[in-house]
Amino acid sequence: MRKYLGKFLLSGVSFAIFSSMQFAYADNGFANEKTDVLFEIKQSNKASVEILDKVNTINDFKEGLLALRVEVSTAEDTAATETKAQGVINSIAAPNFNATIDKNGTGFYIITTVEGLAEIIKSENVLSVNSAISKIQSSSSNSSSSYVYAPDAAKPAKDYTGKGITVAVIDSGVNTNHPQIKGKIVKEYCFLSPDTSALTATQLKIKLSKFGKDYGGCPNGKNFDESIGASEDENGHGSNVTGIIAAQPSTTKDAVPRGSAPGVNIVSMKVTNAKGRSQTQDIVSALRKLATDPALNDVKVINLSITNPGNIPEDCDNMSKGDYQGLINQLVSQGKTFVAGSGNNGYSTGEGFPSCLSSTISVAAHSATTIPGKSSDFYNNYKCVHPNLNVTADEITCFSNVGPSTDIVAPGVNVNSIYKKNGSIVNTSAKMTGTSQATPAVSACVARMLEKDPTLTPAAIKNYLQNSGKYITKPNDKDFYIPKMDCDAAIDMVNAMVKKA
């Protein structure tokens, strides 16, 4: 994200918000301004202790968000009280969204910045301000008639596991026999066109004779397969990615960590062969299947940890990529959230395709812990170096592509997850590094958010993700500040919605 006044969209409602880059420095004027705002909030005696504690943890008071429940003074009737509440809402100049007045008109819920809180408490009609975490009502713009707001159903963020949400993973398939993923794969597909460069003329003749013109690399010998075992992983990449999302908890000796959303169902779509090669036409076929097959209507999240290399310096919506781009946009218009890795080329001014599309959630990587650079996979594989060779949890990895279209940063270094089972050689786990691993961490978070509120739009999901965590940069490049994912914080801001009885 560059230094500019960005505009974000939440559930069809547009609002302006300053990029934190404009306020990343801490000169005396900025520090004094923040001190004055905090003093006003405390002196008002209207903000609860819980809110004051939360405010003290926010470094950027123009960017960090608060979920508030605001009580207003009552008038002679409900309509007049609602008018007071609406007047307070209309007076807020700071970025805000999801403002919703109570049915009885005694107050309203809103998400806004610390500056917005300071504006709210100045109103003579405001009596008190409390936390509204897990209690924010859904506005009509993102609600569905089959769902109702239910604050009593809200749980702590950690209790949301993605239950009932289906995630499609487009990759090299999955180790379907791994004990920590068994039972989570609800559908399997294979899209593998023939790799003619690896065949001799004689081998090609045999393939055509045995399987016909539609021969390919799928288990059935064709270029498409949707039977049991169709997505069996021969490479390992897809298994690792799938496990990051959905691996089941286990206490066995060689178990990998629990996936971030173990409650989800997985549709495994194999488009990468044993050598790790993917063809665009096969990815497009998988996307078309998702967009047009009614049997896949329940897919709400799509994970693509495969990037066409490139250094595209801006949103690439105007760069025609034919069906590839068109199908992604179609899927997002259907309400499916598309999560894509930004790539591992180390670019600091752009990223590859399709993550550069504005309709996707583009993901870069950071480390979950501080580790010595020379001992990490990314140093061995990518040869890029962090200052003092140490990788910290609060910087984007040097290998991550970042640019104006990069949306979020998530853990992607030395991630331990399930691996493949290939013939007689059994590899049940592996630590892997890259934006490929950061991408499923975000997909899992999206699934958890959707469990809490299945009516969330892709635009709303991106907004919650980008405005719930702090911003970080690459160690040797301060031109871009990218939001670091704080999944629990994002979930806390999401409305609690349940299906009507």
Description:
By secondary structure, this protein is an alpha/beta fold. The chain folds into two domains: 5-154, no CATH class; 164-494, Peptidase S8/S53 domain (Rossmann fold, 3-Layer(aba) Sandwich), CATH 3.40.50.200. Helices cover 26% and strands 24% of the residues. The protein is built from twelve helices and 26 strands. The chain has helices spanning 28-44, 49-56, 78-90, 114-121, 201-211, 237-246, 280-292, 323-333, 377-382, 435-452, 458-466, 487-493, and strands at residues 5-10, 13-18, 65-72, 96-101, 107-113, 126-131, 147-149, 166-171, 185-191, 224-225, 265-270, 299-304, 308-312, 337-341, 351-353, 361-366, 371-372, 390-391, 408-411, 415-418, 421-422, 425-426, 429-432, 471-474, 477-483, 497-499. It has an eight-stranded mixed beta sheet, sandwiched between helices. A four-stranded antiparallel beta sheet has the order 4-5-3-6. Strands 1-2 form a two-stranded antiparallel sheet. Strand 24 (471-474) and strand 25 form a beta hairpin. Helix 10 runs parallel beside helix 12 (487-493). The radius of gyration is 24 Å and the shape is elongated. Mean pLDDT is 82; it is low at 1-28 and 134-143.
